[in-house]
Amino acid sequence: QGLVEIEMISLSYNRKILLHQKDLKILRAELFQFENNEPAHRRFEFFNDDLIENGDSDHRLQIGLSNISYDTESETMAIFTQRDLQPNEKISLRLRYRAEYSKKLDGLYKMIYINSDHEKITIGSTQFEPTSARKVFPCFDEPSFKATFSLTIIHDSSLFSISNMPLQDGYPKNLTQYLTVSKFKTTIRMSTYLLSFSLIDFIHSNVVTSSGVVIRVYAPDTDINNLQYSTNIAARILTFYEEFFNEKYPLEKLDIVSMPEFMSGAMENPGHLIFRATNLIYDATRATVEVKKQIMMVISHELAHQWFGNLVTMKWWNDIWLNEGFANLVEFYGADYLYPRLDLLNLHLLYGWSQAIQYDSMNNSHSLSHPVNIYPMIDELFDPISYNKGSSILRMLESTIGPKNFINGLRTYINTYRYSNADTDDLWHVLNDFDVENSAFANTNLKLKTVMDSWINHRSFPLVQVDIHSQNAVVTQISYLKAKVEDRAKRDNIDPLEWKYLVNTNRNC
C-alpha cells in the first residue's frame, strides 16, 4: 500500500485534475489548499500494518471532490472538484492506494537469488522507464512533468533500501522487530521515469572521486571479489565527464546495483543505476576481454545519461533519440579516455554507423524524431534507430561543424536546459549559434536546422547514384528504401567493381 501527496499549482479555472495510474486501487482521495505556502496535514505514522494520520484535521482547508473516473486505455484517472480551482492556486492532492507487485520486470517487482549460504533471499527493485511509474504510485507520468520527490519506504528489516538520494539523517529507523522505515532526502528536479528504489541485502565496494562523489557498487555476496573493476571504471569515467561537460555531477553519491533479473542492460536512474549482473560483474579469472570491454561501455553509457537524459530530458518520447543517441556516442568518448591506445572512438563507425545502416534499410524502419501517441509504441522506439542512427547523425554533425564547436555547443545545451526539458529544435538552436567559421557551413546560407531536419524527420538514408555517359555524369539521390523496392533487380546485377566505398578514418569523422 502507498500514500502519495502531490503539490501543484492550478494554472487556470478548472474542476478537473488528470493524472496517470495503472492497476492501482484508490482507497481515499483528498484535496487541500496550501496554508501560508505550506501544505496542510503532512504527519503520518505506521500502526498495525497501516498508514495513519497523526494530527488534527483542518477541514476549512479541504476542497471537496465530486467524482473520480478511470480510463483504462489512456491509463489515467480524473479527479473532479466541487468548486473551480483558481489560477495560481496552490493545492495538495493526497491519495491512499493499494497496488500489486508487477509480474513483469517493470514497475515494482520481486525476485529471488541464492546467497553464499545457499539461502533463497527475496529482494525487490523498480523499473519505471518509460511508463511504469504509474504502476507504483499515481503521478503525472510524462517526461516533461519534472518534479522533486520525497520518498519514504517501510520495509522488511532484513533488507536495506537504496534510492536516488541518500537517506535523511537518523534513518533507517526500526518501527517494529520486523519493520524498518527509510526516509530519503528530496531529489533534484527530474522526470517520474527516473525515480527508483531497491530493497536488497547485498555487499558493496566503494570509492570517492576527486570531486567528492561517493560511488558504491552493490552485488550479492557471492560476487564480493568481482566489484573492483566496475567501481574503478565508474569513478574514472564520472570524473572525466564532469570535465568534458563542464558540469559537475549533481548528486553527492552514486549507487550502482547488480540485479539478478533486470529488463534491459542497465538503467540510468540518477544516483541509483541498476544493471543486469552480466554488464557489471567482472570475474578476472573467467571473463574474456570482450566481456571486460562490454562492462566498460555499458558503465560509460549509463554515466553519460546523468547529463543527457537525466539533467536534460526530452520533452516527449518522440525525441528519445536525444537521450539514447547522445549516450550512445558519448560512451565512446568515455571509453576512448580510459584506453586511448585502443582508438575506441573510431570503433563507433563499426558499432554505431554500420548497425544503423543495416537496421535503417529495413521496411519497418522509422524516422529518428518519430510521432508517438500510444503507449505500446513508446517501447518500440528503444531500438537501433534511436541508439545507433542517433549517435551516427551526431557524429556526422560533429565532423561537419568541428569538434570544438560541437563540444562547446553540448556544454551550452546542458547549461541552458539542465533540470528541464528540450526537443530536437532546441538542440539545433543552440548549436546554430556557435561560431562556424571553420565548419562545413562556412560561407553558405545553410541553416543547421534545415540540413539536420532532413536526417531527423525521414526514415532510411540517402543512396547517391552516379551514371556516367561519355564525358558527362548524372548524380541522383533517392531514399535507400525506395531504391531497394524499385531498383532491386538492377542493383543486384551491378558489377561490384563499379562501386567504391570510401571510409574516412580521421578521428573526427
UniProtKB/TrEMBL annotation:
The record marks Y387 as: Transition state stabilizer. Binds 1 zinc ion per subunit. Residues 229-455 form the Peptidase M1 membrane alanine aminopeptidase domain. Signal peptide: none annotated. GO terms for cellular component: cytoplasm; extracellular space; membrane. The keyword Zinc applies. The active site is at E302 (proton acceptor). It comes from the Eukaryota. One of its GO terms (molecular function) is zinc ion binding. This is Endoplasmic reticulum aminopeptidase 1 (Trinotate prediction). InterPro entries: Aminopeptidase_N-like_N, Aminopeptidase_N-like_N_sf, M1_APN-typ, Peptidase_M1, Peptidase_M1_aminopeptidases, Peptidase_M1_dom, Peptidase_M4/M1_CTD_sf. Zn(2+) binds at H301, H305, E324. It holds the Pfam family Peptidase_M1. Belongs to the peptidase M1 family. The keyword Membrane does not apply. Residues 2-194 form the Aminopeptidase N-like N-terminal domain. Keywords: Aminopeptidase, Hydrolase, Metal-binding, Metalloprotease, Protease, Zinc. Its cofactor is Zn(2+). One of its GO terms (biological process) is proteolysis.
